[in-house]
Amino acid sequence: MSVLASRLHGIVPPLSTPLTEEFEIDTKSLERLIAFQLEAGVHGIFALGSTGEVAFLSDKQRATVLDVVVRCVAGQVPVLAGTIDMTTARIIEHARAAEQAGVNGLVVTAPFYTRVGQAEISEHFRLVHAAVELPLLAYDIPVAVHSKIEPGTLLQLVKEQVVQGVKDSSGDEANFRGLLLARESYPDFLAFTGSELLVDAALMIGASGAVPGLGNVDPAGYVRLYEAARAGDWQAARQEQERLYRLFEIIKVGLGRMAIGSSAMGAFKTALQLRGIIATNVVGRPQLRLNAAETEQIRQALHTAQLL
Amino acid sequence: MSVLASRLHGIVPPLSTPLTEEFEIDTKSLERLIAFQLEAGVHGIFALGSTGEVAFLSDKQRATVLDVVVRCVAGQVPVLAGTIDMTTARIIEHARAAEQAGVNGLVVTAPFYTRVGQAEISEHFRLVHAAVELPLLAYDIPVAVHSKIEPGTLLQLVKEQVVQGVKDSSGDEANFRGLLLARESYPDFLAFTGSELLVDAALMIGASGAVPGLGNVDPAGYVRLYEAARAGDWQAARQEQERLYRLFEIIKVGLGRMAIGSSAMGAFKTALQLRGIIATNVVGRPQLRLNAAETEQIRQALHTAQLL
Amino acid sequence: MSVLASRLHGIVPPLSTPLTEEFEIDTKSLERLIAFQLEAGVHGIFALGSTGEVAFLSDKQRATVLDVVVRCVAGQVPVLAGTIDMTTARIIEHARAAEQAGVNGLVVTAPFYTRVGQAEISEHFRLVHAAVELPLLAYDIPVAVHSKIEPGTLLQLVKEQVVQGVKDSSGDEANFRGLLLARESYPDFLAFTGSELLVDAALMIGASGAVPGLGNVDPAGYVRLYEAARAGDWQAARQEQERLYRLFEIIKVGLGRMAIGSSAMGAFKTALQLRGIIATNVVGRPQLRLNAAETEQIRQALHTAQLL
Amino acid sequence: MSVLASRLHGIVPPLSTPLTEEFEIDTKSLERLIAFQLEAGVHGIFALGSTGEVAFLSDKQRATVLDVVVRCVAGQVPVLAGTIDMTTARIIEHARAAEQAGVNGLVVTAPFYTRVGQAEISEHFRLVHAAVELPLLAYDIPVAVHSKIEPGTLLQLVKEQVVQGVKDSSGDEANFRGLLLARESYPDFLAFTGSELLVDAALMIGASGAVPGLGNVDPAGYVRLYEAARAGDWQAARQEQERLYRLFEIIKVGLGRMAIGSSAMGAFKTALQLRGIIATNVVGRPQLRLNAAETEQIRQALHTAQLL
Predict the structure, then answer these.
(1) Global pTM value
(2) Do D113 and C84 touch (CB under 8 A)?
(3) How many independent structural domains does chain C possess?
(4) Neighbouring subunits of A (3+ Cβ pairs under 8 A)
(5) What is the ipTM of this complex?
(6) Which residues on A lie below 8 Å from B284 (Cβ)?
(7) D257 within a domain of the structure (yes/no)
(8) Is C146 within the bounds of a domain?
(9) Is B167 annotated as catalytic?
(10) What is the CATH number of the domain that holds C180?
């Protein structure tokens, strides 16, 4: 069993990246956010994921984030880093930088912008694997990269020990279940759901854990959900999830004026600001920022969810 | 009228980027390729576009390409540079580097990986415009970025003089025609088609020119097509286009074994290698490389098109 | 509470439609299939759904199916009928015919072929509702009709008592959960999943029941799954579901030679033929028919699932 | 050469279907509309196409339309009939009815609602061809049926003389050109564009003619466009097309309040009503009807286009 497989499970929030008014990394806020997560009992930290607005950060800013995260987490839980970029050579640069920074594993998407098939996706993961020592998780997120890592592709990569697991943000729970069943053959295979809304169901069918963006806002809620599920108390898990489902509606507050990306990133950051964890609700450009009226709606939702 | 608008028209091939066996820029081949294009009479050069495999190049490699292109073109025709990346801050870095390198204009896509709407797309172009002095062309390529720059968005940006024109790789010729009609209000607006296959039709309905990937392989053919169209000889333009249409079938040679990205990039490079312009048919990773049997098919197609 | 809401729950298989070699309804096989389902303890029958190949049947054949189903079920369980067609007027004709035939409820999709929005979808359901006495279930199946009945649309129709429930074949379990949560306001609202593969999870989060195409082949398995879930034995439910998940792989046997429609319909019918329930594995034209080698693979899968 | 191939060319409007306030066929209006088209010099009539709202008509209404059309056209130009339905058996019923009604050719889409591949599409056309004597045109309209008749599939069916031609409403002009080039091998192959907006370009690259929905409103304009193109006067053709392009904006008048289907059908019918050809702007249900303010916008557009 790999070191990662033996340690990684449970709630692994895809850490938001607090920004200053000048669109730089707000390291003080980031430190508070990490502390907030660890105190809530999260089981790992995933830095530089989609929720971490990795797509909006310069290489230098990415490095800053990883430095702060590795320093603050200080080995208490595993740290994963997203190495999001269009193709292999660029990703390998990010992967090496993350390895240098001291993270414990990498989360790698299929290529994007270019049009690839399953053969190119396999080649991609093999090349990244060959370039670094760190264990890899495949990040299946068709809504962002517009191709699917097919289960046959993924399981072949697992068989070759190129990847140790998957973060499934496909929204295709039926397909995800097929991966879970494949653990009959590959018992160490890590399978995390990227869903915020079906974590109880995912755990019931065997998921290793969850990587919920909303976990930034309410890590304690997701940790309770996970512990209830682990104890087989599905009723408690479901109730917790239903509360979080309703809280997740905050991602729609900005819709109409802006697209779902701005609206969701803005909602998480506004909620964290309202909870006193981070200093601003600034989002990466060209995303739009939630305004005062929208902020007020977020405040109401936090009250309803008993988070304020 | 902007300097760009007064000079830019006609055939502007999206320059392939020759690579060595070690996946580095093959500068000697690149120099030969540029000379080959200029000798054929192309009216501009578009470096670091999708066909230039910009998505596969490191920032350092992008800089090398621009240095070679600016030096070799030496002002004979305008040089455009693609600044392809996920979001605004990263693109502004590329834009400044390209400005430093001495190009004459930038070609900028909508954001990708993240999900944006038209408001975010507008904000994006305004921010890039504010960050550099160079004129911008909007690069509408939904197949790569998975959002459309809607005509209302684009024409508003034209009105604000944020963008000077468009490279339309949408495949939506009816929409493209709507942009052409808008030149009643914005006569300097540059509108280039990214199609390889409908250049005669695009010119007939008023396009400023074309940015055909296949132009790498047969720039003289596209220049003849353009000159025939400019002379109103639509029969000659059509015949040239039909020959090039048939030649374009080479992009399918690798299909099945690989996806369309690998297959198309590989076809152009293999054809250029067979024509003696570049040294290898190496493509950026994780794309797959055309093999000997596939190369033989390309050779046959070049014979049929009277290019060998 | 409507009569339907008080009676409808549990496993409601979307009945396959056995055909003769001449592509006519095989009424003897259909009678055996209905008896097979009832003996297994299914809680309802859904005739003329997508799995019932309603799209392939003439109006006369649809009438024959409903006559046989109503006669054979004879009130033992509720009978639902699909009224699948492109737009309102045509659907109202099917709805009236089904009402005449004596079914207990209708399952109605959004319009298709034409491009509609949510306003037209709402109008559509209101018009069908006004034309018949029977309760309606909305059939949300974007893969077939290529539009989504948005939750806001659906819940407004529930509020107006235009529809009594939903059959959710969207594959979007997170959205489905939102509908389930809305039952706080609409406790009689029926919400069935169309999934074959996540029935345990759907029941755990509160679904009224399931409409699994694979239920044709193994109704007893799905009934066991449902009873285990109702008893709160999630471990047993999960095991049953995992066996059925593996069995469901039969729908891929024909893939490659044919598309998923032919392959899935053919797999269900071939399995029913092998189990001795129906006489042929003929599928509606232009679907392709599974051949001897493919039939042998189905046989193996039935053995593995302990159904032969 | 088939009889159809020798006669069919030019402008073949997809005839709108006038409705009464009670949603029945308004035969008087239909007669006037046909006379209006013939007087304008159209070269054929396509009844029961998408613009004819075939998806909204009962079988009886379809029969009424064909009876009126065949009687009024009276052999002056060829009459084509759309036989739109989900799958083969249902389409064969429509095809036989149309044959009985006396039309000259049938326009047949790929199956829809169900998921088919190219093998099933081929089988479908072969079965329809075997069932009737009339020549078939393949109707490639992915926006409605959500699958593409691939060029390889289509040309094989042409080779087998299963289909005589294509009505291309795919919006993929580059692919359409490939079909036109295939006429080197199949000179009788009829290839019509379904575009309203690129008819000059389509004719320039070799199309047999056009089937423009907007032709209902301004058949004389499209006939002039066609005659100019046939005379090689591309400048005149382009000017006519540009005027019609601007007129086509009327299809957007209802957008927002309704979807594009309602908006486009309503625009054509409202324009025909304003021009005094048909009695109402009623559209098939559940489409929404243009209101007085929207009608006023259509009136303005007709003035601008010099049609009022």
Answers:
(1) 0.97
(2) yes
(3) 1
(4) B, C
(5) 0.97
(6) 87-89
(7) no
(8) yes
(9) yes
(10) 3.20.20.70
